[in-house]
Amino acid sequence: MSRILLKTEDHSRDSAGMHYVYPVISRRAGGVSVGINLNPNNACNWRCIYCQVPELKRGGPPPIDLVLLERELNDFLDWVQSGDFMATRVPAGARRLVDVAFSGNGEPTSAAEFSDAVAIAGRVLAAHDLAGKLVMRLITNGSLLDRKAVQAGIARIGMSAGEVWFKVDTGTSAGLARINGTRARPEVVARRLACCAALAPTWVQTCLFRLDGELPAEQEVDAYLALLAPLAQALAGVHLYSLARPSLQAEGPRLGRLEAGRMEEVARRIRQLGLTVRVSP
Fold first, then answer.
1. What is the 3-state secondary structure (H, E, C) of the chain?
2. Hey, what domains does the chain have and what are their CATH numbers?
3. Predicted confidence (pLDDT) per residue in 204-226, tens digit
4. pTM of the model
């Protein structure tokens, strides 16, 4: 296995030398996150301009080898629990296993096997006496929530006391096209977000940044708040974050990290809706 030392600014998918399973240090989760990458071909149905995936392309994943996925997850948790992973791969201040996260190099729910993969993760966590101790998370753009199979997988996450981090970066059609490369309409995003929140505890995750040196437009922020407001009682909260690692998309040089003070201004307005907000500048 690889001897890469994990860092918050490097979320390499091959740090454990596995096909589907990769560990990262997550600044938002607060420790070591066990990632499950169901998009090893770097394909996604969105194209976010801040994405750190190299050679990102449009599309979905190849068929998932569920047997290999289960074996890798078992092997990795053995390495953590009985081997030298924490001592040799993780800085001393981050040696805490916090979650198993469906994230990776594209939209996880685009895999036809997504719900089966969730079931496997639950089974493996139970076998390692980690069920109820590690949070199972899905990090998603929410675009496929209309599919019954996706809903079934998210319901499984909810039943296992897991949670969903649902991407909402803006509240306008123009912003969705510019930032996320999608034709989705804000009212459809809101409907899918409401569906997700009914199936599992759901946090909105929002990336804030400067584009060509400019702050997020006031009308974009207003529209974003208007999208969240009717759903405030149904949501667990909002994760606001900025750029920790450089974008590998063509727009990368145009993007800049948003200052903590500016992020707190937006956080204050979100809190006025009655939502919990966690800020990661």
1. CCCCCCECCECCCCCCCCCCEEEEEECCCCEEEEEECCCCCCEECCCCCCCCCCCCEECCCCCCCHHHHHHHHHHHHHHHHHCCHHHHHCCHHHCCEEEEEECCCCCHHHCCCHHHHHHHHHHHHHHCCCECCEEEEEEECCCCCCCHHHHHHHHHHHHCCCEEEEECCCCCHHHHHHHHCCCCCHHHHHHHHHHHHHHCCEEEEEECEEECCECCCHHHHHHHHHHHHHHHHHCCEEEEECCCCCCCCCCHHHEEECCHHHHHHHHHHHHCCCCCEEEEC
2. 21-280 (3.20.20.70)
3. 999 999 999 999 999 999 999 99
4. 0.92
